[in-house]
Amino acid sequence: MRRPVAQFYSGVDTEEELTDTAYENAKKLLNLGCSVKTGVDATRLADSIGKRQFRTIIFQFPNVASRDPRYGQNPNHVLVTRFLKNARNHLKPDGLVVISTVDSPFYEGAFKMDEAARKAGFAAPAIYTFDPTDYPGYTHQNTANEESAADGHTAFATFVFSS
Ligand SMILES: C[S@@+](CC[C@H](N)C(=O)[O-])C[C@H]1O[C@@H](n2cnc3c(N)ncnc32)[C@H](O)[C@@H]1O
Q1: From the alpha carbon of 140, which atom of ligand 1 is closest?
Q2: Closest residue CA from atom 24 of ligand 1
Q3: Which domains does the chain have, with CATH numbers?
C-alpha cells in the first residue's frame, strides 16, 4: 500500500462546504500524494482518525468565531485545550503539536496557551515568530468568510507543544 507523504485534515467543514480555495488546495495536495480528510472535529479526532498516531499535528489559526464563554472560559481557550488533550492521544513518542495564532495580547488572553498546555499535560509551549511571507502563496482564512484572517494583523506566533 502506498503511504501518503502527509495527511491533511480540514476543519469541521464537510467536502460540500469547502470554500473554492480550500477545494483547489485539497486537489493540489491529493496530486502531491497527500491524504486529505474533511469534516474533522479537532476536539474529537478519534472519530475521524481512529487510533492513528503522528509525529506532528498542526492546527493553523484555530478560531470558533464566538466570544460567548463556555464553562466560564473563552471558547477559543476551550477549543485549544480540548484539541491539545485530544491530539496528545494521537502523538507518536516525542511528537509535537503545533498551533499558530495572531500574536497580540488580545489573542493571548483568549487562548491562554500556557494554561491550555498545562491542562492537557504538555510543558509550556516554545514560541516562534510565524511570518506568512516565509511561505509564498500562503494565506489563512477567516472562520466566517473567505477573507484572510491575517487582515489587520501584522504579528503571528507559532506555539510548539511537547510533553
Ligand atoms: C481562522 S479559521 C483558520 C482556517 C485555516 N486553518 C487557516 O489557517 O486558514 C479557524 C478555523 O478553525 C475551525 N474550527 C473551529 N472549531 C473547530 C473544531 N472543533 N474542529 C476543527 N476545526 C475547527 C473553523 O472551522 C475555521 O476553519
Answers
A1: 9
A2: 143
A3: 1-40 (no CATH), 54-161 (3.40.50.150)
